[in-house]
Specification:
The chain is α+β, with helices and mostly antiparallel strands. About 15% of the residues lie in helices and about 40% in strands. InterPro entries: Cytosol_ACT (IPR040170), HOTDOG_ACOT (IPR033120), HotDog_dom_sf (IPR029069), Thioestr_dom (IPR006683).
Length: about 130
């Protein structure tokens, strides 16, 4: 069963950052969250492309609130648009924080992936609904 977050799409990853993921400000390093988003987006893009994909762009990235040690980080993803060989995935990251289990919007962005053939060249995406 796919767990959904309403308009956010499906929950693709749920992780808790470790002490090693903290930057000099005491927040979780931005590169850590970018990599989690890339992994989640890649999972969804791979499924929709029915094969290998490569990340080719990150657009409209916005960090809303810092991620703190102890946050449970949920990464949501959904298809935003598609072209002939590429697919844009909207990725939203939300923290569950503290005993009150407060839901906090952390960051959001759009990652673009290109479907790859056996020679690592762009290939057409399958028709929508063919998954």
């Amino acid at each position: 069963m796919i767990e959904t977050g309403g308009d956010r799409g499906e929950v693709v990853l749920r992780v808790m950052p470790r002490l090693a993921d903290i930057n000099a400000n005491g927040h979780i390093f931005g590169g850590w969250v970018l990599s989690q988003m890339d992994i989640a987006g890649g999972i969804v893009a791979h499924r929709l492309a029915q094969g290998p994909v490569a990340t080719v762009a990150i657009e409209s990235m916005k960090f809303i609130t810092p991620i703190l040690l102890g946050d449970i980080v949920s990464v949501y993803a959904r298809e935003e648009r598609r072209g002939r060989t590429s697919i844009a995935i909207r990725i939203d990251v939300v923290a569950t924080r503290g005993i009150a289990q407060q839901q906090i919007e952390l960051t959001s962005g759009v990652y673009t992936f290109v479907a790859l053939d056996a020679n690592h060249r762009p290939r057409p995406l399958p028709q929508e609904g063919a998954v």
